[in-house]
Amino acid sequence: MSSSSPIQKVLIVGATGLLGPHLVSVFDADAQFHVSILTRQSSSRSRQFPPHITIHTVSGEYDKSESELVKIFTGQDAIISAIAAQAVPQQRVLIDAAVKAGVKHFVPSEYGHDTRNEQAAQLLPPFFVTHKRQVVEYLQSKEVEGLKWTAFVTGYDFSRKHAMILKEYGDYHWSTTTFHIAALAVKNAMLMTSEKIANRYLFVESFNVSQKGILCALEELTSTKWDVSYHDAEEERRVAVEKLSRGNFSAIPTLMRYVTCARGYGGDYMCYEESANDLLSLPEESLRSALTKLLN
Predict the structure, then answer these.
(1) What Rg do the C-alpha atoms of the chain give, in angstroms?
(2) Which end of the chain has fewer surrounding CB within 10 Å, N or C?
(3) Are 94 and 81 in contact, with CB atoms under 8 Å apart?
(4) With contact defined as beta carbons under 8 Å apart, do 110 and 132 qualify?
(5) In this prediction, what percent of the chain has a pLDDT beyond 70?
(6) Where are the domains of the chain?
(7) What is the pLDDT of residues 38-81, one digit of tens each?
(8) Could you tell me if 152 and 204 are in contact, meaning their C-beta atoms sit under 8 angstroms apart?
């Protein structure tokens, strides 16, 4: 890592979401950075942050607050977005404001599936894949204006607590990353010289696992033989697609599970991409420790 970083003032958007608090924590813990938070006046903030962290508030929705955003972004070195999937398209105005404010670096809200995968894009709602990819394409169009970007592919958070196996893909491996490591990856990237991390995707994982492998580990940790239900993956996909076509968004978790575990949908992105774990000096994690936390 670089001994001196051009990135010092970091503003986090979406700090109260799933990943946001972890981002705030790792940046705040590093004396290299001065972290602040952006939120909307209408947002209900149930999470409390340390009093020394500045919280900037805009009066309306982000896509109607560009002039306010430019003022807030002025003087910031990097904007780290962790906004919810449904709000992903609003990042365009964040990007425009960042360009006008002279921000050096923008990290879009990715942190999940490899959104370049066309098969996954055909199954999942646009805000999970297509809209995220379009945001990166928009960032690419802003490179000529001096704004650099980095997108992080981290897989889905490690949170499976039940023994439900997609029988066709029970042995298929996929990448997954804990929230802490995902946040640490972003922070460590901001410490590096821009030529190493600018205008590219970085692929990170805590574990490369399979459904059956997780089940075996859970049975070992609990000293219990778990009840297992085996589901027809293709039938589940068919039913979920039909539900989604009728506007029933309860099908989304099923489709997310499918694209994670099924071959060809980008779940095991380390099969075709280089890991950035070493580049970002990420520590190794213990699968046993991660599972133990889930069980407690």
Answers:
(1) 20
(2) C
(3) yes
(4) yes
(5) 94
(6) 9-154+177-205+269-282
(7) 998 776 565 678 999 999 999 888 888 899 999 999 999 999 99
(8) yes
- Tens of pLDDT, residue by residue over 97-106, are 999 999 999 9
What confidence tens digit (pLDDT) does each residue in 197-243 have? 999 999 999 999 999 998 999 999 989 888 889 999 999 999 999 99
Between CA 292 and CA 286 the distance in angstroms is: 10
The predicted model gives 80-96 an average pLDDT of 94
3-class DSSP state for residue 149? Answer: strand
How far is 19 from 12, CA to CA, in rounded Å? 11
Question: To 5 degrees, how large is the angle CA 221–CA 224–CA 225?
Answer: 120
Which phi and psi (to 5°) does residue 125 adopt?
A: -60, 150
All residues at 6 or more sequence positions from 94 whose CB lies less than 8 Å from its CB, including other chains: 13, 62, 69, 79, 81, 106
Instruction: Record the tokens describing residue 221, joined without a space.
Output: 């940790």
Q: How far apart are CA 193 and CA 239, in angstroms?
A: 47
Question: Structure pTM?
Answer: 0.91
CB 255 within 8 A of CB 244: yes
Cβ neighbors of 139 (< 8 A, separation 6 or more) are 95, 106, 108, 147, 149, 151
Tokens linked to 85 = 């999937």
